[in-house]
Amino acid sequence: MLHKNSEGENVVSATIRLSDYSTTPLYNIKAVVQSTNISPSTLRAWERRYNMCRPQRSESGYRLYSDRDIAIIRWLKAQVDAGMSISQAVAWLQSIMEQSSSNEQVTLPDPTGRAVELQPVAAPSRLDLENFANLQAALLNALLNYQEEEAEAILARAFALYPVEHVGEYIIMQVLVEIGERWHRGELNVTREHYATNYLIQRLAAILRAAPNAADRPLIWVGCAPGELHEVGALLLSIYLRRAGYTVRYLGQNLPVDDLVAEVQEIRPDMVLFSATTTEAALSLQPLCERLASIEPPRPIIGYGGRAFNLRPELRNDLAGVYLGATAMEAVESIGEFLSEQTRLSPRHHRAIPGRQTSKQSGR
Hints:
The chain is of the alpha/beta class and about 375 residues long.
């Protein structure tokens, strides 16, 4: 059936009558995990934070769940799998329940429908920021002491409570910055730095592989500037863009100039984005971006960002292309704006976006 979302759009829906599901507590947590394919740690984290189901206790003290509990958990997991954060999914469920006259029939929109696409990521609350700091400290301690199982548990807890974007920006990125600063101060040896950094890179690479890649959206290439070996920013941006519904190809570290220009001429992506953390890498982008900007139309929009451009804004002045923002989350918003403007001005052809003093560059 059709259901109207908050913007009045018709979306595919599935009707669940909660009265069809028994409230008798029968199933232990192992049975729920097998039925819903959700981990015990994630389920417990959701219960503690959102109280979305209330398992009863057996005489021995074990949690017992009903069929209705399992139906709700399955629906919430489907929303999260489709791209929502758990907080958004719970709020949506509560809103639907409150609007229903009773539990005899509650319409829950299909997680594969339009309603769950491109959900905005809300800014974290003050309490969230405090919790992020605690998770950062715990994750850093685990990694610097080679406690991989503990690091996995901490990240599992973080991903259970927060959207990927928040975990990436406020936990993983901050931990990597602290690791780098400790290494520069001589407080951390190379072996521990490499272990911790590579663990987080592998974790992000796994998330990217699992993220759905749209087939009919703008094609965006993301990679690191020539000579740039730090890829976390580019990985995070690739993940966020896939979650936002774009078709993304992650190209990796230290991109070769001649090969890249030739590939862009052949494939014609809509955007080519670069990350640079050092001044040297940022300067290496100048000849590359000039060559990309000189390609015959249709040519891609060229974008760039990273720590180098945040610390030294003057590096943006003579670079062909557009500065995307201080963080990967800001970059996603900028990319949407640039692509929308491109479509408005030239719906059938690509256009070059001038890179000299955009509003983001000048701070206006």
